[in-house]
Amino acid sequence: MAGRPNRSASLQTAPLRAVEPDPAAVSLDKVKAILAPLDRAQKSKLFELVQAGHLEDDQMTVEVGRLIVAMLNGPRTEHARRIWTGWFDPVMLRTDQLMLAESRPPGCMHVVDASAWWFALLPHLRELAGRVQSDIAALASEHPLDRVLASPAAADWAEELRVRSLEVLRQRGVAGPLLATANSERLTLLRKRGLAGVAPLSMGDLAMLDTMLDHAPLWKGAVRPRETIGILHAVSEMAEHGSADGAMHYALALINGSRDPDQALALHGMSPGPALVEAAVGHVQFAWQCLRQKLEDLHLGRPAPPQLTAGETVDRLQERAFRWYDTLQGFGVERGGRNWAAVSAAVGRVTGLVEGEVVPVLSHRLLTLNASTSARPLIDPVRFINGFNHRLRRRGIAASTNPWLTAIGEHLAALFRQIGAYGREDALSAMADLCELAEEAGYPIEVTAIDKTLLGIAERALRDGRELNAGESRLIERVVTVATEERRRCRWWVSGELVSLLDAAQQRGIGPTPQ
What we know:
- The chain is mainly α.
- Helices cover about 65% and strands about 0% of the residues.
- The chain has 24 helices and no strands.
- It has helices at about 5-15, 25-35, 40-50, 60-75, 80-85, 110-120, 125-140, 145-150, 150-170, 175-195, 205-220, 230-240, 245-260, 260-270, 275-300, 305-310, 315-325, 340-365, 375-395, 405-420, 425-440, 450-465, 470-490, 495-505.
- α13 (about 245-260) packs parallel to α15.
- The longest helix is centred in the last third of the chain and has 28 residues, at about 340-365.
- It is elongated and about 105 Å long.
């Protein structure tokens, strides 16, 4: 058609040229692939070498340096927030247990709390935070972010943010809106962390934020000590060269981090005060709360939040609960005193749970145990209840002498004889478990030399030559003991089954050597 260009012809006469790859970009890709497997320390060391001029090409020095910086810094962008929350690093909780406390001990500043406070303060710090953010971003494009954040300039930015935050906190009429915003932001952060049922921040928490920001320069850059001596030294130094109030807030944070009653008692011995007493009471309440919810989870089908106990066993939780209880006297918390009601309530909820719900549930399981189910899973729970009640009695806390019904002992003894009569291959193991369970319940099963079925089971196990477990060994030793005593008592006549058993025991080196 006239006037219309022939596009196909033009395409044929002007073939596309292949685009040559940029050699510099290809080289950087190769460098990045080489650097990727290196850890952070190795990348940092390599950056130092590059900065020292070990690459001959100046342009590659710049490009490779930027590449390493980008790999070291990663996608982190909220630099101003990190600068501000850095004031709390030495005192901040990063584990979640205490967030779920029904009554949190004083001095708890969790990483989620700090972030929520930052987002609440941010509208009041917008201009300053924006300037700090852009300054850090500019420096971080050429230098590793960790070095930027550890620089004198970063210390100046942190101080500006701290001072401005205190000014905001102390403005008239700002507390209510600030607290509401912080709690709103905190809910979002808690959901991301999988935490539910956390008590909201209060005016007391807002006052603690003010106090912590006020004292933050005292512990800035402090490394949290692990040993008690180190903790005492750090707190003493802060009290001597800073302020007693700031040192006490640092001490509370250390206790909240370790949850160690011995460390708390040592701090109280060095610097006694009501804040440490309040903290001790709070930790007693929390320790008994953890034990209560673990028991509910194990025996009553009421799941406890996994963060609450962080995988700790019920025995470990019981140990901590009683350790905190036992240290109360050192804090001056006496029965009937001002702080005792909270402690008594926490302990009472656990003892009431054990007596009113856990023991009945376990008793039902014991009474419905039959020949086709194993007794082994019930041994540890029964042993735990016995040990728990024993600890209560030692401390003068009311507990029944034996919570297990006599019917339980009768049922276990009947089941013992029933299993022996069935001729099961695993009869010895099952009977040994029943013996152990019955002993824990306070009703030891009687073993007699006239029980020919039991004598035969024990003999077969001895002659099999297999390795016996601890429970089986104890049962066989009991059988051999009563058989030996029966032979001494009736030396002129004993059953063939008894003689055969003692012969098998002698061959295995069990029991006394015949005279």
